[in-house]
Amino acid sequence: MLRLVQLLLLTFFVLLIINCNKPTQPIIPDVTTTEATLKNLQIDIISSDSLVIRNGDSLLVNAMDVVKISVFEDRWYQGLEDSLVFLKTITPSYKNVGSLLKLEFLLPIKVHYPDYDKTFVLQFNMSDGTIINVKEWVSMYKYPYNNSEKWFDFDVVGSIPILGGEYTCPPAPWSHLQDFELIGNDIYFTYDHSCSYWGVTKYNINTGEKEDVTFKFNSAIDFTGKVSALLSAGGTSLALDNNYLFIDFVSSIGGLYRYNMLTDSTEVGIKISSGTWGIEASNDTLFFISNMNYLKLYNYDGVSLNSIRLPQTKEYGYYHLEQYEGILYIWSLDKILRLKLKNLSFLTPLVAPTLWNDGFDIHNGVLYYGDWTDIYWIELSELREVE
Length: 387
Hints:
Blueprint: H1 2-21, H2 35-38, E1 41-47, E2 50-55, E3 60-61, E4 66-74, E5 84-90, E6 93-97, E7 100-104, E8 106-110, E9 117-126, E10 131-139, E11 149-153, E12 160-162, E13 167-169, E14 177-183, E15 186-191, H3 193-196, E16 201-204, E17 210-212, E18 219-221, E19 227-229, E20 238-241, E21 244-249, E22 255-260, E23 265-271, E24 276-282, E25 285-290, E26 294-299, E27 304-309, E28 321-324, E29 327-332, E30 335-340, E31 345-351, E32 360-363, E33 366-371, E34 374-379
Antiparallel strand pairs: 1-2, 2-8, 3-7, 4-5, 4-9, 6-7, 9-10, 11-34, 12-13, 14-15, 15-16, 16-17, 18-19, 20-21, 21-22, 22-23, 24-25, 25-26, 26-27, 28-29, 29-30, 30-31, 32-33, 33-34
């Protein structure tokens, strides 16, 4: 009997020891950090194609709830089913601030296709295994001028009928702006290469009316003075002055047309050796950029007046130009040249509001510039001189 009692006591103590040594699951405290708190962010645009997302100065939490932070770019414009593109993951740090903790992190980001409205998603991985997503929109067009504003979105234009409705250009963003001119409430513009060969479209911003305004004929002037049948007439650059519309023609023959909008006819063809990178027409003088680095001057009848070698650039040359108050503005990536037409002397260039422009226009001291499917504006007086 005594031996049985001893055996039972031994078994009891063995089981007690085993249970005492058995590991227990850690107690995970409740997450107290909320989405509203995590929205306290600071975004700094560093350059035209890079930015930094960091914690705001008052991003204070009660506990070390955030374990990791992942950032994604929402590339919705690519039309993908899953538009979130992973960029990077970091581990944040914490700093004591009184009785609270300051959540600190720094996310440098290289921007894919800069100059547009960008969308980023910050994924905060919490200590309890949950995830809090914070979405942020960044207006990259605010660099280098914070006062730049969006003026017109070509998404509202929709599809564009061309050649009497026989063909249709797809809407933005599948088609994008190439060049434009503002005349009153009308925007005259060309779209990208898939559509621009067919001419120029006029869009009224008040009524929404669209019109294929040019080259409604089946022939155009070639560059021997004869008429060639079935020559499509359109291009990427345009300029208007009174009833005349000038447009380039991108083809093996290469040239510019002077189109009379009143008589609906092409009157003059100017043969050039290469495509143009911008056209301007003012006071019976036609300006255009040829071979990316030469400024050509012609009269409206196609007679050559002058050729000016523009200052050498590192890359891409010059594209698009505009005359305003006796000065010809010539865009080249991050700067805008200024040519004083009275004596053909160059003024100090200006810092451009965007690297890639799709045409620009100047009215009443306001610079309007295109970028893919939008037109932006900024006061001309706000542009800084290149140092």
